[in-house]
Amino acid sequence: MPKLTEYELQRQANIARNHALLAELNFEEAAAGLVSRKSEAEAIKSKAKPIQPAKRVKRERNVIVEPRRQSLRLRDAAESNGSPSKKRKIDRDEEKQRQIELEERLEAEERARQARKPRHQDLDLKSLSETADMSPEELSALTMTLQTVAQKPQPRRTAEYDAFIFDDEVKEEQEVTRLKESLKKLKVASRAKVTQDRVYSAAYHPEKSKDLIFFGDKHGQLGIWDAQAPADEIEDEDGDVAAPDEREGGKYWRLQPHWPATSKSSISAIKLDPINSHSLFTSAYDCTIRSTSITTNISREVFAIEDRLISSFDLPPTGQELWISDAKGGLTHVDLRQDKSTACRWELSDQKIGCVSINPSNPDMLLLASNDRSLKIWDARMLQEMPASTVTEDFPPTFELEVVTKYEPLPKGKGLLVAEWPHNKSVSAAYWDPRGRSIVSTCYDDKLRLWDAGSEMHKGGIFRAFKPFCNIQHNCQTVSDFELLSHILDSPFEFSDSALDIFRDTIFCFDGVFLSSLMGAAERGDGLPSSRRSGRPIPTYIRISRFFHPQGDVLARLSDSKRISAVQAVTCSHPSIVERAASGNASGRCVLWAPASTSD
To answer: Which GO terms of type biological process are on file (predicted)?
Structure first.
């Protein structure tokens, strides 16, 4: 018998002393009695227990006990009884496995990184539609629609230089009356949510047999809307078909030419090829311009630049060149017949150039609107004649602002800068009309300005008399954080969703008639709601689009408070049919304005 330790001896002594103490107090008998009474009570209680509801028995699952994972090195080491060569082999295998796992992880991270970068390769229609989850049937319908408008060329219409110019006041009044009567017939002919996000740009295809409109949104998505195509009847959960007024009008498709699908890829401008309208050019905040062919259904990149936000671009009537403005005050020329590496850039402002417009009758006249509070006309011929020795080695090669300023003064009234007009605030956009003689500008001082530059342009050289003949009051900044459509964002890579959904744009549409969209206050009168505190009428705001005469008079106001509840952010019109206009708002919903007979 093993010898007890001192601790065990002390423990046994404590137990004996406790038993003796309990025996003196008779606690052992009392404890025995309590136990017997408790057992009797439990027996009685078990007999009187009421019936309980059946409890849900948890179903036992057949759990398959898998063998516990064991380190290969430890197992092999045990089997090999600690052989050194076997241990080295195990170590090599484990190191190889770790290397494979590391490479797989790095490849996955690289694929995710590449997926967030802009796409520079050629993309077919299937690739463009993947992010929109377009079905094969929808893709086939889109292909057929594009093939229909590609049957014949649709060149961009250039109006006659003397269009809408009358020597007889009676004839002018008759023409104005005719236009007013035509525009009064415009109604909301179709509505649909063409894009998923805020509409930034729009273009109307010149095809007359259908209303085909392109919309670019905040996340680089291109919406294609056949506005008056027969809509599909879609049943709801109860099997009911929505009424014609409640369903979306026409058919639309969504493509993703610019990537990633974030605000870094917002489509800032859309232009159709002026030669045949068979290609669609789009610029985006991903600093690229892509051309999507309607005939081949291939989208290819025609220009890309790093760290410079592309705000606007335009094509001359020949369709073989691009003039591109950017947020760092630059103007870039790209010849589409040559490689894009041959592009050249001029710094013409120390602030953002928000818009460039090419004169359709004299393509050498480039109209620029800038945040430096000026509207300027530059001579493209003089820009391209600047000596190449002064260009920088950047891409694209750049004539810096200081070089352009020193080179500008030339003898005989010729120079780079043909005309200039200062504004009170930043000039957000400016356009030539289809005749090439009138100019309209939008400015943050809440005014639209009209110029008649035809007489000065025919004289040649620098414009001696260049000032607007008409100032139109226009609500261009309802709130302090207002942003103007088309050429927004001083920051090239972000846009604040907190900005109020109030945008403005002006688009020339027919012989100098131009369309403007805004939110205006309705006239106060009886029937308007009143404030409970002051009893004063509350101003009611209406969403309207206005057609203007080339001389600045309002020809028509378009509004429909029952069917349009948001400000129309972007407007565009048919290049040759005055009774066609389209608009889109900040939620991606678009509206077609047309005579009521066409919607029937």
So the answer is: DNA damage response; regulation of DNA damage checkpoint
Closest CA to 195 of 289, 280, 261, 124: 261
Whether residue 396 has a cis bond before it, omega within 30° of 0? yes
Q: Give 406-412 contacts, CB < 8 A, sequence gap 24+.
A: 410/382, 412/461
Do the beta carbons of residue 484 and residue 518 sit within 8 Å?
no
In this structure, the strands spanning 398-399 and 344-347 are parallel
Please, what is the end-to-end C-alpha distance for the chain in angstroms? 113
Instruction: From 374, 455, 472, select the one nearest 421 (Cα to Cα).
Output: 374
For the whole model, what pTM was predicted?
A: 0.73
- CA gap 367, 348 in Å, rounded: 12
Residue range of the domain that includes 310: 123-234+242-524+534-599
User: Using omega within 30 degrees of 0 as the cis cutoff, is the peptide bond preceding 260 cis?
Assistant: yes
Q: Where are the beta strands (DSSP E) in 81-125?
A: 123-124
CB 275 within 8 A of CB 158: no
What separation in angstroms does the CA of 570 have from each of 182, 210, 487?
Answer: 22, 20, 12
Residue 87, in any domain of the structure: no
Asked if residue 449 is part of any domain, the answer here is yes
In a domain, 98, yes or no: no
For tokens 């490689």, the residue is 339
How many structural domains comprise the chain?
1
CA dihedral of residues 573, 574, 577, 579 (deg, nearest 10): -40
What CATH number corresponds to the domain at position 168?
A: 2.130.10.10
**Mean pLDDT of successive 10-residue stretches along the chain, which has 600 residues:** 76 85 67 54 46 41 53 56 72 87 85 72 90 85 93 84 78 84 88 93 93 95 94 60 70 92 90 95 94 95 91 93 95 94 94 94 94 94 89 90 81 75 90 88 87 78 83 58 26 27 39 51 36 40 61 77 79 85 90 75
SS (H, E, C) 52-87: CCCCCCCCCCCCCCCCCCCCHHHHHHHHHCCCHHHH
Phi and psi, residue 191, nearest 5°: -140, 145
Query: Is residue 318 domain-resident?
Result: yes
